[in-house]
Amino acid sequence: MNSKEHLKYLQPEVLSTLNNMQLIAKFAVEGFIVGLHKSPYHGFSVEFAEHRPYNQGDEVKNIDWKLFGKTDRFYVKEYEEETNLKSYILLDKSGSMNYTSQTVTKFDYAAYLSAALSYLMLRQQDAISLTLMDDNINTYIPPAAKRSHLDLILKTIQRAKCSGDTVLAPLLHQIAEKINKIGLIILISDLFDDPDAILSALKHFRYQGHEVIVFHVMDKNEIEFNFTHQIKFIDMENRNQLLTESQHIRENYKKSVDHFIESIRNQCLNNYIDYKLLTTDRSLDVALMEYLNKRKKLH
User: Fold this and answer.
1) Does residue 201 contact residue 130 with C-beta atoms inside 8 Å?
2) What is the pLDDT of residues 85-125, one digit of tens each?
3) Which of 52, 97, 125, 227 could be cross-linked to 246 through a Cys-Cys bond (beta carbons 3.0 to 4.6 Å apart)?
4) Residue 260 to residue 6: CA distance in whole angstroms
């Protein structure tokens, strides 16, 4: 597979043609790594564990004796970095995440991102945790750094379906009380809850010593409101309906959404929380790079 073929797997609409979360994660991360060697990422290195044949003068302590036992040849472990970083992915699967105006729903995008992050973390020997939530905490997988754990996480993401109301803030407080090892909290959500309540919960993580990244996932049409005619809006959580002329409400709608986004962004900034707005048409490398930059600062 050439570099252009790799890079296309960072596009969500291409990933949507794959039915297997293992393949989605693998192709997205491999495409991302190809991209690291190109502008604007030139010179940014990712410390992955690799092996090369033993050469005279190499430190004997760096020989991988387990691999010697399997191959009867000497290989040296290179660029291996043991870390204690634990990353906790908090994935919102409430009903509103099922919205799309194109091919990829917000939840599809969030799932692809969660899978790719998990794959990338394991490549870096970091421990991975996954929490799925809507109006309850549906699943909590504690952190671990082994291949079988990654398989469990990817299968769990693949099986997940959107349902329930968005009740983020109290659930985030519950999770903050549940996690007893300091790490990196990664919230992936459309944040359709009260911004002040969400920020209060995120500050709970900061108070306990965690680093926090918020990936705010929205459909482009939720921001730009590109409707031009009479339209019926249906709430994806409580099924309430509203029939309206889109041009009559566009200006006020856009002001409200802009205020909502800016409020969350500014409050995150003021509380040392990383924030990134992602629309479902954007390449995954934007989010993966945000994660890598954050991880680099923690070492």
Assistant:
1) no
2) 899 999 999 999 998 888 899 999 999 999 999 999 988 88
3) 227
4) 36
Here the tokens at position 206 are 């900061």
Cα 91 from Cα 268, distance rounded (Å): 18
CA distances from 248 to 197, 231, 233 (A): 30, 11, 14
Greatest Cα-to-Cα distance within the chain, rounded to the nearest angstrom: 76
Q: Which token pair is 251? A: 């200006």
Q: List, for residues 40-83, the tens digit of each pLDDT value.
A: 433 344 444 456 677 777 777 777 777 777 777 777 765 444 45
Q: Which helix (H) or strand (E) holds 12?
A: helix 12-15
The helix or strand, by DSSP H or E, that contains position 9, with its residue range, turns out to be none
Query: Residue 93: inside a domain, yes or no?
Result: yes
77 and 169 together in one domain? no
Q: Is 3 helix (H, G, I), strand (E, B) or coil?
A: helix
Domain check: are 226 and 118 in the same one? yes
Share of the chain above pLDDT 70, in %: 82
- Identify the band that residue 180 occupies on the pLDDT scale cut at 50, 70 and 90: confident
Q: Which residues contact 268 (CB under 8 A, 6 or more apart)?
A: 199, 202, 214, 274, 275
Taking alpha carbons only, the member of 268, 132, 144, 139 closest to residue 198 is 268
Question: pLDDT higher for 38 or 288?
Answer: 288
- Whether residues 144 and 254 fall in one domain: yes
The residue written with tokens 């799932």 in the block is: 111
At residue 277, the 3 state secondary structure works out as strand
Q: How far does Cα 172 stand from its chain's mean position? A: 16
Closest to 46 (Cα-Cα) out of 119, 96, 133, 108: 119
Range of 128's domain? 86-297
Tally the residues of the chain.
Answer: 299
Q: Is residue 138 part of a domain?
A: yes
Q: Check whether residue 59 and residue 151 sit in a common domain.
A: no
